[in-house]
Amino acid sequence: MNFVVIISPFCYAFMMTNGNNPKDQVFSTPMENIGPFSFNQDVADVFDDMVSRSIPFYKEIHSLICDMVLRNYKGQGIIYDLGCSTGTTIKLLGQHLKEADRPYQFVGVDTSSEMLGKAKEKCHDIGNTTFRCEDMTEVDFQNAEVVILNYTLQFLKVEKRKDLLKKIYQALRPGGIILLSEKIKSPLTEVESLITDLYYDFKRRNGYSELEISQKREALENVLIPLTPEEQLKDLKLSGFENSEMLFRWYNFASYVGIKKHV
User: Fold this and answer.
1) How big is the CA angle at 63 (ends 50 and 61), to the nearest 5 degrees?
2) What are the pLDDT digits (tens) for 34-49?
3) CA separation for the pair 42, 25 (Å, rounded)
């Protein structure tokens, strides 16, 4: 029997972007003292493997981002990726916009110089891209048309998030969009416990040991602070994004879009 395997252009691009990554073993050995999670060199070296095995539907979320940008981006302003990490989102968007023969300009922002080093390597052939080692709350947005926060807002102190969302809304061009993906929590204790257990089952299926799950959970405690979907949508709307909605949810992960009204 003969089989035909068809790989979509997006899947191929994603494999080319994320293939042959060093395996994440950051938390695989017992640690006497577990410090707060940090995007240091050890994490940067394995980050692509880490997120692909730790964030459900990571590839599909990038597909969603590409679809939304290709539909809404007019090429009249800048696409900002706040917390751009190793540059996967910019790489994929750049490839898609190039294939569509569309003009573009990217600004990638991250506080980790180690992550930005990886991003510059990955995106060396994209062009029209600037990377900044900067706190996302201090960015001086210029002519913003799309702002992406892909699992990064959750690392800010809660009180700083609303100010950043308001700043983004004010900086966006009319019709511009914010694309936001976050880890979330349920306001219902029993549901929160259930979806957390299901998430750890997901990590086990992806090869993480009980030790790795436990130690990373401890490292992320008080570093990654999730909100409920209701709180996240309320913050978006209060920031000016009256046209905002959840696009995707899997247990305790969700993605949202906010659209700035045309004048």
Assistant:
1) 50
2) 999 999 999 999 999 9
3) 9
